[in-house]
Amino acid sequence: MTQPPHDPRPATSDDEELLEAETTAVLSEFTDAQRLLRIQDELRAGFRALSHVGKAVSIFGSARTPRDHPRYEAARRLARQLGEEGYAIVTGGGPGIMEAANRGAREAGAISVGLGIELPHEQSLNEYVDVGVTFHYFFTRKVMFVRYASGFVVFPGGFGTLDEAFEAATLRQTQKIRYFPIVLFDSAYWSGLTDWLENTVRRDGNVVEDDVRSLVVTDSFADVRAELDAIEHRRPRVAPRRAA
């Protein structure tokens, strides 16, 4: 049987095909109406699936972190400890740091949540997810990360990880959320970012000191728990930029 010629172009998503279309015919009112319904359905599915999780922590980090990396084990251990203290663990449901955190939650007997995303190269939820929801739109997924978590713990990662961290920082800065810790775990990785925020962004007048100090950089599990405990008791607290 004759095989079709290889197409070197990367796989595309429905959104990409829509945005790259040369004709405006696809941008019909009917298509927009369908999108609105899809957004509504995604929000409803997320609310339904996560309504029972109770207090939770969202843990982020690179999908490229291998299982034999120290950060993988750190994320696994931290999630296990938080799970033993009654927190559900919420991740993006993928491999790497996300898998490690879901694995730690499973080991602790805590609720292990994975919020997946449809991508051109499909990525399935990892094997340690107990409650899984897959989203088409990034922004509906982000609603769930913030809506059902008491705070974020952000391990080293790339653009997706940075996106989640800065999204939460923006919500805090604008007081859309108030009692919400954002902990950047692994000071060796994050110190360059926080130095830039302090010495360039703040000095240029684009943020204030409290904006930078609200990002807690640490290597300590105890610091993570302390930040979450402070929020659980509804006591707003600004921690030092680098925990001792």
TrEMBL record:
PANTHER family: CYTOKININ RIBOSIDE 5'-MONOPHOSPHATE PHOSPHORIBOHYDROLASE. GO terms for cellular component: cytosol. GO terms for biological process: cytokinin biosynthetic process. It holds the Pfam family Lysine_decarbox. The keyword NAD does not apply. It is an enzyme of class 3 (hydrolase). It catalyses: 9-ribosyl-trans-zeatin 5'-phosphate + H2O = trans-zeatin + D-ribose 5-phosphate; N(6)-(dimethylallyl)adenosine 5'-phosphate + H2O = N(6)-dimethylallyladenine + D-ribose 5-phosphate. InterPro entries: LOG, LOG_fam, LOG_family_nucleotidases. Belongs to the LOG family. One of its GO terms (molecular function) is hydrolase activity. This is Cytokinin riboside 5'-monophosphate phosphoribohydrolase. Keywords: Cytokinin biosynthesis, Hydrolase. Its EC number is 3.2.2.n1.
